[in-house]
Amino acid sequence: MLTNDEALQIFKDSGALLEGHFLLASGYHSGVYLEKFQVLQFPHYVERLCKEIAERFAADEVQVVVGPTTGGVLLAYEVAKNLGVRGIFAERGDDGKGRVLRRGFEIREGENVLLVDDILTTGGSIRDTMEVIEGYQGNLVGIGVLADRSGGTIDFGVPLEALLSLNVEKFAPDDLPDWLAKIPLTERGSTNHLKQ
Fold it and tell me: Is the predicted pLDDT of residue 183 greater than 50, yes or no?
């Protein structure tokens, strides 16, 4: 079994663990940022991490793996490959909110579903994807994530397996500690170019 320290080393070795002052997609600020695509660009890391998630849910009779776009596309595919089942992904809705299945994807009623995602911070994309699974009356057997930034504080009501668990503080924009406020702000993410 992959240990928390081994998973952390993968994030460090790939350059995915960053320190500074970061504006997160949630609007919160943090002194630590996990740039998931620094890990996901290396097939050998993706293969190892997804094999670990698959092994942790091997006894759950998973029939389909679903992940939210964008990182969840890679993870759903690779975890599904290891489990020998279908891998699909949920995209943003037309209004930019929530998640939907497109491209002919579906979850059959009662089908055992494993939800996978890259980084758990607030749980928004996971909750959106859970709503999709519930809408199709799928049976969510668990959630697997590469990293849980909440340190295990979020409960989805189903088993959650995080390969890396970190308790990373996040701060509201109007409640920054002095040490963080002194560091120039960096915005990360797919909707922002790196800004400093």
Answer: yes
Phi-psi bin for 128: left (phi > 0), alpha (psi -120 to 50), beta? alpha
- Residue-number span of the structural domain to which 16 is assigned: 4-187
Number of domains in the chain: 1
Place of tokens 């088993």: 159
Q: pTM for the whole thing?
A: 0.89
Strands 64-68 and 86-92: parallel
| 86-92, strands of its sheet edge to edge | 99-100, 86-92, 64-68, 112-120, 139-148, 160-165
Please give the pLDDT value at position 152.
Answer: 84
The answer as to whether 195 is a domain residue is no
What CATH number should be reported for the domain holding residue 18? 3.40.50.2020
| Helix intervals (H) in the chain | 4-13, 36-40, 43-56, 71-83, 124-135, 178-181
